[in-house]
Write a structure and sequence with these properties.
Blueprint: E1 2-6, H1 9-26, E2 31-34, H2 41-54, E3 62-65, E4 67-69, H3 80-87, E5 99-100, H4 109-122, E6 128-131, E7 153-156, H5 159-165, E8 178-181, H6 184-188, E9 193-197, H7 203-211, E10 229-234
Parallel strand pairs: 1-10, 2-3, 2-6, 3-5, 6-9, 9-10
Antiparallel strand pairs: 4-8, 7-8
């Protein structure tokens, strides 16, 4: 696990975007796992810039999003279908048929969740999964206590998660109580993980994730067990880390 502490949100976002862009350059048919929320917006802005100004090509890329609220129509301003269209998909040359966001309006949600897992496998698996983190340590909508081997499923949202997300809705009554989420086991099968966090409100969760024991009560701690995980934070989010995190050495391999 590599931990990178950046001076600002902007630097954090650029670092993450460049890592994703490098994957796309090396593998034009890359399969990207994407996240929503305020944290990855800067990363998406930089990916859009790289596409428009440097020709980063998404035409053959496939994407799978982590989660979606149950019950929200795709055109609802707070649905993750809408979020991804507004913050990324509408601004790059990705084929809409290659973008996948869980369907919170599916008539048979358990069956859909199984199908979603099958789609990921059929696509060849996730080359990289972008993650945010909740103040309670959740990743995607895998709340504290989630099975570390879980698969895509419906989860009841923790009250703290609903309160954190209430700012996006008119009032708490409008905040959905359920969501479809990739499971922790699904996430861990990605070939690479990039977890982002900014602001002091995430500092305690980041400290637990990087330096605490692996526990289902802080689901993000599972990234400690991934063979290729990078945690990128700004100074505020990294303010409660107790040890130094020097940059990993870059070893030149000469063929």
């Amino acid at each position: 696990m590599e931990v990178l502490i950046k001076e600002s949100y902007e630097e954090m976002s650029k670092q993450a975007a460049e890592m994703i862009a490098d994957i796309v350059r090396r593998k034009p048919r890359a399969v990207l796992g994407l996240a929503t929320g305020s944290t990855p917006v800067g990363t998406y802005k930089e990916l859009i810039r790289l596409h428009k100004e440097e020709g980063l090509d998404f035409s053959k890329v496939t994407t799978f999003n982590l989660d979606e609220y149950v019950g929200l129509q795709h055109d609802h301003p707070q649905s993750y279908h809408y979020f991804m269209a507004e913050n990324l998909f509408n601004h790059i040359n990705i084929n809409p048929k290659n973008t996948h966001v869980p369907d919170g309006t599916a008539k048979d949600i358990p069956a859909f969740c199984q199908t979603y897992e099958e789609w990921i496998v059929k696509a060849g698996g996730l080359d990289v999964q972008l993650l945010g983190i909740g103040g309670n340590g959740h990743i995607a909508f895998n709340e504290p206590g989630s099975s570390l081997g879980s698969r895509t499923r419906v989860k009841t949202l923790d009250e703290k998660t609903r309160q954190d997300n209430a700012r996006f809705f008119k009032n708490m009554d409008e905040v959905p109580k359920y969501a479809i989420t990739m499971g922790i086991g699904t996430i861990m099968e990605a070939r690479q993980l990039i977890l982002l966090a900014n602001k002091e409100s995430k500092a305690a969760a980041i400290a637990q994730t990087c330096e605490g024991p692996v526990t289902a009560m802080v689901p993000a701690t599972i990234v400690q067990l991934h063979p290729k995980a990078t945690i990128i934070v700004d100074k505020a989010a990294g303010s409660k880390l107790s040890r130094e995190y020097p940059a990993e050495p870059h070893i030149l391999v000469v063929s």
